[in-house]
Automatic annotation (TrEMBL):
It is a multi-pass membrane protein. Keywords: Disulfide bond, Membrane, Oxidoreductase, Quinone, Redox-active center, Transmembrane, Transmembrane helix. GO terms for cellular component: membrane. Pfam families: VKOR (PF07884). Belongs to the VKOR family. It comes from Deinandra increscens subsp. villosa. This is Vitamin K epoxide reductase domain-containing protein. It is found in: Membrane. PANTHER family: VITAMIN K EPOXIDE REDUCTASE DOMAIN-CONTAINING PROTEIN, VKC DOMAIN-CONTAINING PROTEIN. GO terms for molecular function: oxidoreductase activity; quinone binding. Residues 75-215 form the Vitamin K epoxide reductase domain. CDD domains: VKOR_1 (cd12916).
Amino acid sequence: MATFINLSYPPHSTVSSHGKHRPHHLPLSFSPNFPSQFKRDRGWGYGRVVLLRVKCLNEPSRDAVESESTSVSSGISSYSWCAGLGGLGFLETGYLTYSKFTGSDAFCPVGGGSCGDILNSSYAVVYGIPLPLIGMVAYGAAAFLALKLASKDLPFGIDESSGGLFLLGTSTAMATASAYFLYILSTQFPGASCSYCLVSVLLSFSLFLTTSKILGWQKIREEVGLQLCVAGLVFAALSNSYSATLPPPARFGEKFLPYFPTEIKASSSPLALKLATHLRSVGAKMYGAFWCSHCLEQKEMFGREAAKLLDYAECFPDGFKSGTELSKECKKVKIEGFPMWVINGKVLKGIQDFSELAKASGFEAGDFSLELAEIAKQSAADNMQP
């Protein structure tokens, strides 16, 4: 961008040795291409007006500014996506961690092996640490780092480039672990269904791809050594942890699993007998499968005698194999998982404690806490017996 500067000189003059007026002027030099104008003044000699063309410093064009602004906005938006994915993963693994430490469990899915059995298998522990807890820490770290990158407020004096590499390393480790567990799921639990596992795989791969897009594929190619190193360490750590792990006792879908009656070791308490009798009188029904460990846990809460009083429906009375249909009785209620209760038209999914069953059926017997503690104590003692 250029502009013209108007320079005018004072119209005074001096007298030369010849008696002629001489105008004072500054020794300005300019290109012949620059416009200039001379004006003769009778009384004052030559007045001079010079128009100088001055070129200003280069300024960024509006398009360049808008492009840079759009690029920064896109980067912040992408980091926000990473933070969102990490947050979802943190919530999912946080729920599974809570379930692990409290002993609660989700109901078993229909049409495959138990999701609960997979989450409670030996593959759900790495070096003695519950896998959901490790995932919760990883997702939480990724979400925190992405939020800091989006706000450009990185901790510990880390610059944006280093922060991006940390996020890349974290997402690479998570994607590698997810691929490893997907392989375990398909080979060790064929035919089994684990929605939590699949959701975690989707989130971790999405986080890795989003991070790669932010940094750019050129940067990813430059840091391929870092990625291979991280992936190798994760693979080696998981393989070493599972090297002594035996395969699950039941490979769902590999072969036919004949029906077998479950053995209940715990004895029934007076309260359990009363509650079981009441549940039967109001038409409450429990639906389950012989291979479902949580169905057995529910029966153990009642004990041997009380469990016989329950109205129980077996959904696979002829055995189980991948693709086996539910019994007509279970199809009729459109069962979604095991165990499942239907009490006064209300559906209760998963293991239910006595207080929930009493509330749903209208049974009143005061505080159940002491009774439940006694049942747990008795069940533990029975399980220790050979």
